[in-house]
Each structure stands twice: as C-alpha cells, then as structure tokens.
Amino acid sequence: MYAVIKNGGKQYKVQEGDYINLDKLDASPKETIEVTEVLAVNAGELKVGTPFVDGAKVELEVVTSGKDKKVITFKKRRRKDSKVKRGFRREYTKVKVLSITA
C-alpha cells in the first residue's frame, strides 16, 4: 500500500515505515502529525482524488529536524566583471510514516 501526499508544494510517494524529509514543520520530536492532503492511494486498486481523496489520511511521526547540505548558486557574465555566489541550506523535518488509511 502506498500514498501520494502533498507538502510544501511538492509531492511525495510514501509507504508505511518510510522516512522522508519534509519542509520545516513546527513540531517537536516524537509528535504525531496527520496529513489529509492525500492525492492518491493504492491499496490493491488506485484511488485518485480531485484534488484530494475523501477520508484518506497519513499519520507521520516526527523524528528530528535539521539542515540539508549547502547548495551553491554561481552566476558569471563573461567579460563584464560581474559574478554572484550565493549559498542556501534548506531546513527540513525528518518524519516516519506510521500508517495510511483510505
């Protein structure tokens, strides 16, 4: 059984027992979160929502939170003496999928 959930403008395919990194959530470790924005559920047959599946939810448990690796963006315009270097670290919350109900 798997589900496709929406979080932070992105879609994630999850199964029970999976660990995923979501955008930063205001939750402490060991806290349980319910996600009702379920786009699709496959439990033998595929149910696709318009946009969300009615009555479907995914329970998540917060494991930890932190920052990803640094992503460097570098722009250079040749012969113009113009260059820009920026770094970015995304904050995330690592969660474990406890159950999927449809």
Please tell me about this protein's structure.
The chain is an all-beta fold. The chain is built from no helices and ten strands. The protein has one domain (about 1-65, about 90-100). Strand 1 and strand 2 (about 10-15) form a beta hairpin. The strands form three sheets. A four-stranded antiparallel sheet has the order 2-1-5-6, with no helix packed on it.
Please state roughly what percent of the residues sit in beta strands, choosing from under 5%, 5-15%, 15-25%, 25-35%, 35-45% or over 45%: over 45%
Give the overall pLDDT as a whole number: 95
- Element-level helix/strand string: EEEEEEEEEE
Largest sheet: 4 strands, antiparallel
Structural class by SSE content: mainly beta
Tell me the Rg in angstroms. Answer: 18 Å
Number of helices: 0
Classify the helix fraction into a percent range.
under 10%
User: How many strand units?
Assistant: 10
Termini, distance in Å? Answer: 10 Å
Overall spatial form: elongated
Supply the number of structural domains: 1
Strand arrangement in the largest pleated sheet? 2-1-5-6
What are the low-pLDDT stretches, counting only 5+ consecutive residues below 50? none
